[in-house]
């Protein structure tokens, strides 16, 4: 219906000798387009329109498109690992997680095709793998990676070292500290960041972790309705003695959840999409990322992503304005 209603406008960009394609034609085309080649085109486009600045925080995280699976044909829902430039608010790339493998296999492949020089890569505990750290360093990038008990020996060493640092107030340790305090609608949150630098001999004497320079700890103290909760998280990093810089990387990592995954779920209703056939789910995941980038870069209207999408469907002038970003 959109195509039929906007046929004259679409003909400015496309040859449509047979009119607007049918629903079935769209379905066949998107299911057959090579997802690998489509992804290459996306990466080429992003490199052409973006300039990643030194110190940019690049967050990597995975997301599942819940209704993209087809149980009758034994096909599970697709998972996609994405790279998100936090300050530029851009999807830099994505990689579909193949078959029954997990995100750990997709991460190195995505890192390999991106230009990450002089950036800071952040990943949650799924990325706490030596091979992934090595790939990041090979790209001339720094890293801040969460450590959980899936790496029990490393986790225990970090935990014990921070207990010692707190007990001795950092004596004989190269320690940096930084704190933040936020008040919001009756909720108070204090975050205390500690960073211990030059810890290789203590944590990784055999240097199995590439460029492991420092470890980080975040103590989050939340007071909600008079009830206090405390959460402690640990990180490994290649950064040097700057707890404030560490805090910025850790906080910025969550922008991939708030500014990308949440937008895909709420504004694009990705989880409700029932596109399932062949390559179509992966290709539409890329299309949504293209749309997120285009809409996110447009600053001419102070509107939500959902409102910008709706306005573009109504206003040809605004549609042209958005398209200028990709031409």
Task: Supply the number of helical segments.
Answer: 13
In the predicted model, the low-confidence regions spanning at least 5 consecutive residues are: none
Give the biggest sheet.
9 strands, mixed
Coarse structural class: alpha+beta
User: From the 3D coordinates, which CATH architecture would you assign?
Assistant: Alpha-Beta Complex
The rough form would be described as: elongated
Order of helices and strands: HHHHEEEHEHEHEEHEEHHHHH
CATH topology: Transposase Inhibitor Protein From Tn5, Chain A, domain 1
- The domain tally reads 1
Question: Can you walk me through this structure?
Answer:
It is built from 13 helices and 9 strands. With 327 residues, the chain is an alpha+beta fold. A 9-stranded mixed β-sheet has the order 3-2-1-4-5-9-8-7-6, with helices on both faces. Strand 6 (174-184) and strand 7 form a beta hairpin. Helix 12 packs across helix 13. It starts with a helix and ends with a helix.
Looking at this protein, list some descriptive labels.
327 residues, 13 helices, Transposase Inhibitor Protein From Tn5, Chain A, domain 1
Give a short synopsis of this structure:
This protein is α+β, with helices and mostly antiparallel strands and 327 residues long.
Question: Helices, strands, pairings?
Answer:
Blueprint: H1 2-5, H2 7-10, H3 23-32, H4 35-49, E1 57-64, E2 79-85, E3 90-96, H5 103-113, E4 120-123, H6 130-138, E5 142-147, H7 152-168, E6 174-184, E7 187-197, H8 200-203, E8 214-224, E9 227-237, H9 243-253, H10 255-266, H11 280-297, H12 305-314, H13 316-323
Parallel strand pairs: 1-4, 4-5
Antiparallel strand pairs: 1-2, 2-3, 5-9, 6-7, 7-8, 8-9
Helix pairs in contact: 3-11, 4-11, 5-6, 12-13
